Amino acid sequence: MSRSDVDSLKIFAGRNNIDLAQRICGHLDLPLGAARTDVFPDGELIVRLNEDVRGRDCFVVLSTCHPINDNLMELLIFLDCLKRASARRITVVTPYFGYARQDRKDEGRVPITAKLVANLITAAHADRVLTMDLHAPAIEGFFDIPVDHLQAGPLLAEYIRELNLPRPVVVSPDAGGVGRANGFRERIGAGLAIIAKQRPQPDIAEMIEMVGDVEGKTAVIVDDMISTGGTLAEAARALRERGATAVYACATHGIFAGDALEIMADSVLVETIVTNTIPLPDGYERARVRAISVAPLFAEAIMRIHKDLSLSALFS
Asked: Rounded to two decimals, what is the model's pTM?
């Protein structure tokens, strides 16, 4: 990297994404920006920059995951801090975009919180957003600033290909994920199956029927996120009952809320592959969870944005 890039490009991290930000900086041969977030006794946050950012191209790495409201507030304060310190351009790097599941009014008298969060980030002086695998791609349209939407599918598919699984079949856990599963299927050269389900309550799913043949095959469930783990464990059990010889799972975002890891540890899943868009809780290895780093992909995207180059090659 040239001396001018080192001087003009600054990457900062929120408290929950320091490890990922350091990995990104390692790929770019850059030091992590000097900043810290302090918490007052009453819970208020304050972000302090410990270096000059005037006229610099600044990136803030911070996933709005659990505790989602604290992280979202830290992000907004970080943006305001950079703006008031006269940063030239501010890009939000939010590998996991929280509130993405509240993207539409599916019943009366409910908010569209994903749009509200997009408005807050824009109002806090962000110039651009870099994210990965939004729950609903239409959320890009909620922002009035440019959004670069990376995909983890190629990284996860590469790992599955290297396993050389016998007779693989990719399984979409619901009708809404068929497009994602079909793209994954094409990358690894496998068949496709679909689980039809309904949700009587949020994070609770009931399987209705399955389309596709899984008997005698290795099933790979592909989704964008794993929250409580209950739906995934139930899908894996159903696939084994339908004759699948083994079941794997792939997801971009490992939320692992509540006792998700315990549920998955007790499931029939051979292995669950996620990325490090969200910091993984302690003991995730015991639940047979493997994490793949997205730092190289984000590092390349950040450098291309900094140099005003196309990101199209990274979207596939």
From this structure: 0.93
